[in-house]
């Protein structure tokens, strides 16, 4: 393995990792607040990509306009999803909420199959994302540079919001103790809606960026990335936004670098995430950046 | 030899020290009280003794043998049973079934002997049922045997929880606020009950309680905790007159 | 036990026996008279009874949330397939890469293969249970889902053993009505006996309040592992039966979607109700087939006139089922039966069977105590 080749793999890993990170953030935010694994998150990712596609294909909007529109619509969808599928079950046993989440996920996927058709659709990648950049024997598409930048920008923005704004403080309060937060006159419903909206927006962003990098859409495109990104969030420490980012990068790196060094394992690529998950759950379930959790008797 | 001994048991949760260097010693047959304001660490002490939490430091000894950090069901089998501050009955099971669960503490039902209803299983079931009924009769609950546990009135639920713990044939019974929510009449009955079961089943009892009447009336010795520290220890008369105890409960001055 | 209760018990047992005989006769008749398609649907119902009960054992009665069922089914299906196919059939399938030598010549009788399928799945379940069951519910869900995916990926890649993505075609049609429904009957019997026993009581205790159960001497972890292992055994058998009814298997069959289908049955019937699972197995299997038309072109006809016709929209059927699942969990969480079981007393109370002196008081809630 030569240095340029290694650097190429590393570059690929970074760009994949930042995609994972972007999506993982949404999972971790929702889990932090509601202790809910939003199975439908991966499908929201898919929706964002399709909305951007149709915006460009049908309404002939310029890519940045359709992107913004898709983000907003998907955010609204995420808020709606929470209202319909999760809020009514907030006081129910966790198993019910999880079943609702799984049901929602399948519903969205199958509605996608019905509406969009099961056959993959090709995405027209905007020119600015399609520029080939060569640097010292390593070549990447510009989109692969844009994605990590966006991810870090998002991370910075979120950390700012969570640490420095009142909404962020309210979010932290709700995620620590929902009932206590309610008693402090925090509008818990608004915070939860905000979290879902923000998380869904990020998922949509991830989905659209994904479609620029891998320009083929299909209604089930969100399933595997969704699962992997949840795993990334767990690895980094579920509930921690920086943990999600770390987990995303780690997962991307492990996935691509393992295949780079051991090409015979390419077929097992999807399994890496799950193996990693199980290792983490056994060794340190709270994840790399997570704290220990105590249950009160 | 003391039945139960805790040796400098300390329990820290992150930055909070719930229990600090607890040294408790209980002789067989005693009824000992553990009191203190809310948050003093009493239930945490119970949790450490029963294996729900592994202590940050210190050891717990039953009959001289170290039981620190053993699995919860193992500690139950060794002879320590408990009730809970917020009653934890099995909601979907009947009164009788709740007690029956305790009956199987020592001989767990095997999955195949249960499913196939083998003769050994059937015999053990019959014996368990007889024992469970006898226990229910002790507290006047035999008429409620088939009722859902959660359907019982509060006072009866507390009694059921005690009897369920007794079904595990303990030597040491830990009662966590058994008199909570009881009126004076019920509290007196509870005191009689505790003494009766102590005598009848050769138990030793450690009891957390806020009801001073019950504590002073039934305990031979009392430990007082505040913020995890043991601030006093002695017989009821001594405790009642201890200025530190009075201050802890009523505040200074 | 009063004389009354003993008499009532005996009467119920007789009724149950009579019903069982009646159903067996029905199966006999169906086997002779149903067309191949209807018979297949009937047998699928039976297989789903086995699968739903196995999932209910873990999710309903033990209170764990396991999403890995498809993995155990896959293992069972492949085990049985590889053990029952003749060397000639195997050679036909493994054209890309020959099968591993130690599997090439092995052919065992079907009952043995079924048991082996269950055993291999159980062994896998045991191995997975030991680490996974220490996790909290949602983590357990993801971990089991993860294991199922790992199994699927491994099956897809182990070309010399499983024929990889190509799958196996032409499985011998050993899973006839008799076999399937015997397995279903045995499963129901086992579950009923287990749930009413002391072991079942321990399971319910764990599900209700794990902390209290542990404090009362129940070895929670061990009970969970045993439960999980048995459930895996049943799932393996179910998977094997499924494979032999469908006669082809490939890794893409055993995705989360399959687990979802079984979960749907369990939720619909009521998590924690054996009766519910049985009824829902029939209902969902039949509905799945009946609603197949939704995936094709839909036409509105009046007499001879076709008003309009939509194009085929595959996936509509699953949309309906997903929406249905969500409706159930949102509006009637407890499903059809909740945690209740069937009892002949229900008919007495409804006036369909004569009442006995003293009435049928608590018969409906737990079954006989």
Architecture overview:
Chain A is mainly α and 297 residues long. Chain A has one domain (3-283): ABC transporter involved in vitamin B12 uptake, BtuC, CATH 1.10.3470. Helices cover 71% and strands 4% of the residues of chain A. In chain A, the strands form 2 sheets. Chain A has a two-stranded antiparallel ribbon with strand order 1-4. In chain A, strands 2-3 form a two-stranded antiparallel sheet. Chain B has helices at 42-49, 72-78, 95-103, 111-115, 119-138, 154-166, 184-200, 212-218, 236-241, 243-250; strands at 4-13, 16-22, 25-26, 31-35, 57-62, 65-66, 80-82, 172-176, 204-208, 221-226, 229-234. In chain B, the strands form 2 sheets. A 6-stranded mixed sheet of chain B has the order 7-8-9-4-10-11, sandwiched between helices. In chain B, strands 1, 2, 3, 5 and 6 form a 5-stranded antiparallel sheet that branches. In chain B, α3 (95-103) crosses α5 (119-138) and α7 runs parallel beside α8 (212-218). The longest helix of chain B is centred in the middle third of the chain and has 20 residues, at 119-138. Chain B is of the alpha/beta class. Chain B folds into 2 domains: 1-79 and 170-253, P-loop containing nucleotide triphosphate hydrolases (Rossmann fold, 3-Layer(aba) Sandwich); 91-163, no CATH class. Chain C has 369 residues and is mainly α. Chain C has a single domain, classed as ABC transporter involved in vitamin B12 uptake, BtuC. A two-stranded antiparallel sheet of chain C has the order 1-2. Chain C has a two-stranded antiparallel ribbon with strand order 3-4. In chain C, β3 (299-302) and β4 (305-309) form a beta hairpin. The model of chain C is unreliable at 357-369 (pLDDT under 50). Chains in contact: A-B, A-C, B-C. At the A-C interface, α4, α9 and α11 of A face α7, α13 and α15 of C.
């Amino acid at each position: 393995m030569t240095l340029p080749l290694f650097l190429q793999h590393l570059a690929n890993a970074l760009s994949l990792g930042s995609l994972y990170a972007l999506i993982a953030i949404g999972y971790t935010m929702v889990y932090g607040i509601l202790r809910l694994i939003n199975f439908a998150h991966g499908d929201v990712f898919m929706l964002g990509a399709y909305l951007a596609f149709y915006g460009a294909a049908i309404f002939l909007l310029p890519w940045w306009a359709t992107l913004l529109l898709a983000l907003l619509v998907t955010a609204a969808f995420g808020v709606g999803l929470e209202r319909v599928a999760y809020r009514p079950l907030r006081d129910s046993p966790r198993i019910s909420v999880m079943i609702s989440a799984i049901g929602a996920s399948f519903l969205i996927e199958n509605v996608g199959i019905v509406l969009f058709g099961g056959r993959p659709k090709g995405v027209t990648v905007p020119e600015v994302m399609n520029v080939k950049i060569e640097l010292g024997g390593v070549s990447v598409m510009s989109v692969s540079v844009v994605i990590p930048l966006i991810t870090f920008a998002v991370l910075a923005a979120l950390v700012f919001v969570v640490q420095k704004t009142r909404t962020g403080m309210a979010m932290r309060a709700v995620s620590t103790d929902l009932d206590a937060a309610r008693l402090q006159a925090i509008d818990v419903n608004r915070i939860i809606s905000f979290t879902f909206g923000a998380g869904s927006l990020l998922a949509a962003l991830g989905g659209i960026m994904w479609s620029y990098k891998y320009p083929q859409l299909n209604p089930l495109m969100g399933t595997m990335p969704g699962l992997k990104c949840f795993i990334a969030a767990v690895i980094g420490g579920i509930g921690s936004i920086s943990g999600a980012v770390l987990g995303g990068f780690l997962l991307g790196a492990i996935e691509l670098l393992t295949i780079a060094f051991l090409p015979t394992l390419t077929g097992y690529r999807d399994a890496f995430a799950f193996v990693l998950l199980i290792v983490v759950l056994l060794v340190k379930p709270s994840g790399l950046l997570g704290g220990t959790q105590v249950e009160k008797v | 030899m003391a039945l139960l001994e805790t040796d400098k048991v300390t329990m820290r949760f992150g930055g909070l020290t719930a229990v600090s260097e607890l040294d408790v010693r209980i002789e067989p047959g005693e009824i000992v009280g553990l009191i203190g304001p809310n948050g003093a660490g009493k239930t945490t002490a119970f949790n450490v003794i029963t294996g729900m939490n592994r202590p940050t430091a210190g050891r717990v000894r039953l009959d001289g043998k170290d039981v620190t950090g053993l699995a919860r069901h193992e500690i139950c089998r060794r002879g320590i049973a408990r009730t809970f501050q917020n009653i934890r009955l099995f909601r979907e099971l009947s009164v009788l079934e709740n007690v029956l669960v305790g009956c199987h503490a020592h001989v767990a039902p095997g999955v195949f002997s249960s499913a196939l209803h083998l003769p050994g299983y059937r015999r053990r079931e019959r014996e368990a049922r007889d024992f469970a009924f006898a226990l229910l009769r002790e507290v006047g609950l035999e008429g409620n045997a088939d009722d859902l546990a959660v359907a019982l009135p509060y006072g009866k639920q507390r009694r059921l929880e005690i009897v369920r713990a007794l079904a595990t044939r303990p030597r040491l019974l830990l009662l966590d606020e058994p008199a909570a929510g009881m009126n004076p009449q019920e509290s007196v009955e509870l005191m009689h009950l505790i003494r009766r079961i102590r005598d009848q089943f050769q138990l030793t009892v450690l009891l957390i309680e806020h009801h001073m009447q019950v504590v002073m009336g039934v305990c031979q010795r009392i430990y007082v905790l505040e913020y995890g520290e043991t601030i006093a220890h002695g017989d009821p008369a001594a405790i009642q007159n201890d200025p530190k105890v009075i201050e802890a409960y009523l505040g200074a001055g | 036990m009063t004389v009354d209760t003993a008499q009532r018990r005996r009467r119920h047992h007789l009724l149950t026996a009579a019903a069982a005989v009646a159903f067996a006769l029905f199966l006999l008749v169906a086997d002779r008279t149903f067309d191949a398609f209807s018979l297949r649907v009937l047998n699928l119902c039976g297989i789903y009874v086995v699968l739903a009960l196995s999932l209910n054992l873990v999710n309903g009665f033990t209170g764990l949330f396991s999403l890995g069922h498809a993995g155990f089914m896959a293992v069972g299906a492949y085990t049985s397939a590889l053990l029952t196919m003749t060397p000639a059939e195997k050679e036909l399938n493994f054209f890309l890469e020959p099968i591993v030598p130690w599997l090439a010549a092995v052919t065992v009788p079907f009952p043995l293969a079924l048991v082996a399928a269950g055993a291999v799945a159980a062994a896998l379940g045991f191995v997975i249970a030991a680490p996974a069951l220490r996790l909290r519910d949602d983590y357990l869900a993801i971990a089991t889902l993860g294991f199922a995916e790992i199994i699927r990926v491994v099956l897809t890649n182990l070309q010399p053993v499983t024929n990889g993505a190509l799958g196996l075609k032409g499985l011998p049609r050993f899973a006839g009505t008799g076999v399937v429904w015997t397995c279903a009957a045995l499963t129901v019997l086992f579950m009923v006996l287990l749930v009413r026993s002391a072991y079942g009581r321990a399971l319910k205790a764990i599900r209700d309040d794990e902390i209290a159960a542990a404090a009362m001497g129940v070895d929670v972890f061990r009970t969970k592992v045993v439960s999980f292992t048995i459930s895996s055994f049943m799932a393996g058998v179910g998977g094997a039966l499924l494979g032999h009814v469908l006669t082809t298997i490939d890794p893409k069959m055993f995705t989360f979607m399959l687990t979802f289908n079984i979960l749907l049955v369990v939720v619909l019937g009521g998590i924690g109700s054996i009766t519910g699972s049985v009824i829902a197995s029939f209902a969902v299997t039949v509905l799945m087939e009946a609603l197949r038309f939704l995936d094709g072109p839909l036409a509105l006809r009046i007499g001879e006139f076709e008003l309009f016709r939509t194009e085929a929209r595959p996936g509509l059927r699953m949309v309906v089922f997903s929406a249905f699942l969500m409706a159930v969990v949102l509006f009637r969480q407890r499903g059809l039966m909740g945690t209740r079981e069937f009892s002949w007393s229900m008919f007495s109370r409804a006036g369909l069977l004569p009442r006995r002196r003293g009435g049928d008081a608590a018969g409906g809630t737990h079954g006989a105590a």
